[in-house]
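In response to reviewer comment 3 from the previous cycle, which asked for concrete evidence that the modeling workflow produces usable outputs, we include below a single protein chain processed end to end. The sequence was submitted unchanged, and the resulting structure tokens are shown without manual editing.
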Amino acid sequence: MIKHRLFSKGEYIHALVSNARHSNLLFPVRAIIYDVQFDEMMPRYQIKIVKFYDDLNFLKRHFFDMNFEKGFEGGTTRFKFSRQKYKTREQLQKHIDAGEDTYFVVVDSVMCTKSYNKIMELYNNIQDFLIEKSFRDLYEATTRQSYSKGKYYYKSKGVFQAHLKKFLDDRIPPDPNYFDKLLYRPNSKELDETS
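The workflow returned the following structure tokens.
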């Protein structure tokens, strides 16, 4: 059963756009809905972007040349642009607006909200999760025994935690168990119980 707000054709929304290959890279945008594919679990929208919220340099590094799902029956939209041609986001947007039937993108309904504040709240929550996952991955990579001669090796969780505390400084949440949860490693018994 759907527990989030649904939108109709022609509505302006805010969305988080991503592609399958780089699903952790999200682009907050304002868009208009051109078509809706209803599904009782996860409706999807075919949208046209009317405003980007990322700066142009970020878009040039990550958005340009990316492929996105174009329609419900397949097909892709590729934003293949010359990076030197566009000096402002407005120039980029003008080009996209001129290609009326060219630059459609499909997004899941859970990645859409009505207001800018709500989409940025969703975006920040997802980014927080991805950054914390990166900390866990970094901890795992730098404390492996087989990496003990590596440049970035940490001998213990305590040393890694101390350096991470210094890096995070006043951004550490007030939860006293924050680092235990963040750097948690399940033991063999717990791993066997979950499989």
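The longest strand covers residues 27-37. We consider this sufficient to address the reviewer's concern, and the full set will be provided in the supplementary archive.
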